[in-house]
Queue: 2 jobs
Job 1
Amino acid sequence: MIPFIETFQRAVRRLEDANISYAIVGSIASTIYGEPRLTCYLDIVVDVKSQQASFLKELFGPLEYSCPPIEILGSEISSCGQFSILHNSTGLKIDLFVKKDTDIEQSCFDRRQQIEIWDGFLAYLASPEDVIIKKLKSFYEGGFEKHIRDIRGILVNSDLDQGYLKKWVAQLDLENEWKKV
């Protein structure tokens, strides 16, 4: 098996075995729903609380992963921020975004879908609409054109709930970004 896929599967299985809810977002999700794009990192939204910082540190322990110090994990979890872990032998970077206590984040988790990503491997992905919304927000924050290309790929290749998209684009004030798509 390709080291990237194997590493991805192991990280997701660790979250599942630990009963940590997650939703895969970013380029992996946009590739599955849209058009392929080369990537060497994973973006996963996780539903964790600050008291789980030491547990996460153990879950992604030093033998296999480089994980931030416990103080940084606790701080990022408390502020609903993000942190990265690095798989030691492959160099694969996994960005973990802490689920925020907002209506859009809750909706994203409520709508996530378990999908077969690779031969027999099931994982939870944000819905295509929620991936589009996250990519619109990322484009707003950073201006990277790759997000627009990813969104266009999803639009061409996925059946979408247009009402859901319109609702959140308006509520999150992303109309200008949406027009660029």
Job 2
Amino acid sequence: MKSYFLLNLVLAMLLTSSLQAQNHSQANEKQQKRQDKNAGAQEKSSAKKTSKDDIQNTIGIVGPIRIQVLPDMIIVTGTDRDEVKRVEALIHKLMAVSTQTLPKNHIHKLKNAHAASVAPWVQHLYDKNFGGRQGKVTVMAKSQSEVLIIGAPEAIKEAVKIAKSLDK
């Protein structure tokens, strides 16, 4: 699942950069066509150049690069070494960031309240007050006196504060 998510992020980033490059290429192509109209003798050579660029842009999202996702690895292959290295660098950056944002589990022990009563309130109050800013958390009763909170570390801290305030 993590590899699939990373692949989607990589492809989205590469698509964006590819579209920017394509827009730049189209602008250059328009400028080239204007110049070719003024210099009629160069028209045939520019048509060959344009068609070659068009073919390269239709090979794939990132040109002649192939990305294959396996359960335990991502394989990047292609004929342009610089492009392959660029894709690999993006994947490594995304993997580093994703390990920082992996959800954590926290079990909070309640002193007075019943977990089945507190958990839905913690979830509701967190979603209403922090959900958009801190990220999503999932809160559920683990036992009669324990609440399981799953989410990013900063989000868990806020949910624990709410649980403590309700446990009086």
